[in-house]
């Protein structure tokens, strides 16, 4: 299971790198820029939303599921 998680993290890191490189272009339309920032926000939100097995959800008092 950790291999899938490692692949997903690597994929997310590559997406962020691609977006950052794309945003450095000299000529980028506002719609392209908005789409790139939305993609980056979605990746970072998904990345930050993960919990490790040892973390406790303080609202429910339960530990996160093991993956």
What proportion of the residues form beta strands (DSSP E)?
A: 5-15%
Shape annotation: elongated
Q: Determine the N-to-C terminus distance.
A: 6 Å
Helix content: 55-70%
**Number of helices, counting only DSSP H or I runs of 4 residues or more:** 2
Mean pLDDT: 78
Largest sheet: 2 strands, antiparallel
Provide the succession of SSEs: HHEE
Sequence stretches where pLDDT stays below 50 over 5 or more residues: none
Strand order of the largest sheet: 1-2
Tell me the domain tally.
Answer: 1
Structural class determined from secondary elements: mainly alpha
Oligomer: single chain
Total count of strands: 2
Computed CA radius of gyration, to the nearest angstrom: 16 Å
Can you describe this structure?
The protein is mostly helical and 67 residues long. The protein has one domain. 61% of the residues lie in helices and 6% in strands. It is built from two helices and two strands, in the order H-H-E-E. A two-stranded antiparallel ribbon has the order 1-2. Helix 1 packs antiparallel against helix 2. The termini are close together. The relative contact order is 0.13. The mean pLDDT is 78.
Tags for this entry?
mainly alpha, elongated, 2 helices, 67 residues, two-stranded antiparallel ribbon
Summarize this entry quickly.
With 67 residues, the protein is mainly alpha-helical. The protein has two helices and two strands; from the N terminus they run ααββ. It has a two-stranded antiparallel sheet with strand order 1-2.
């Amino acid at each position: 299971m950790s291999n899938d998680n490692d692949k997903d993290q690597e994929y997310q890191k590559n997406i962020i790198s691609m977006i950052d490189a794309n945003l450095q272009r000299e000529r980028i339309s506002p719609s392209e820029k908005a789409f790139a920032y939305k993609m980056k926000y979605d990746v970072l939100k998904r990345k930050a939303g993960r919990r490790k097995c040892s973390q406790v959800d303080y609202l429910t008092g339960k530990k996160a599921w093991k993956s």
